[in-house]
């Protein structure tokens, strides 16, 4: 059912770590959640696709995208009820849409696209590619980091999403993110 892809109402500030693989989204999500004494929404696709790889030795296929989107929104909606004023999201459906278009010839399931554009967040943090590449079973585009970064930034611009570019070392990224989240909190 389509309701499985929709955000439930929430009064917390929602921020998304957004960008290509191996750019520090998970590391920063954990740091921000600790700083704000809140919860963070992990990337559902990581566990889902790692299990698929471990069992079938297969990578992501188009048929996996809706189950991934459904799982991501279930996590987000669950954690939004537990958040302490701020919810840190390691990803969102717009990120899944960008990956779908990058990997599957510009295509995206209409349901995924609908909710990727309909669900809302207070701020996106676009993570730059100046972090070291870390290989694992799922990451596969070390030579396409610039193109993937551009795809993510272009999506934010195309859909008029408010975002802040995070680059530099971990301390600078964290400091920049905290500064912007604190500004959002102060406006509430």
Automatic annotation (TrEMBL):
The NadR/Ttd14 AAA domain, residue ranges: 14-173
Keyword ATP-binding listed: yes
Entry superkingdom: Bacteria
Gene3D superfamilies registered for this protein in UniProt: P-loop containing nucleotide triphosphate hydrolases
Keywords: ATP-binding, Nucleotide-binding
Molecular function in Gene Ontology: ATP binding
InterPro entries listed in its UniProt record: NAD_biosynth-regulator, NadR/Ttd14_AAA_dom, P-loop_NTPase
Protein name: ATP-binding protein
UniProt xrefs under Pfam families: AAA_28 (PF13521)
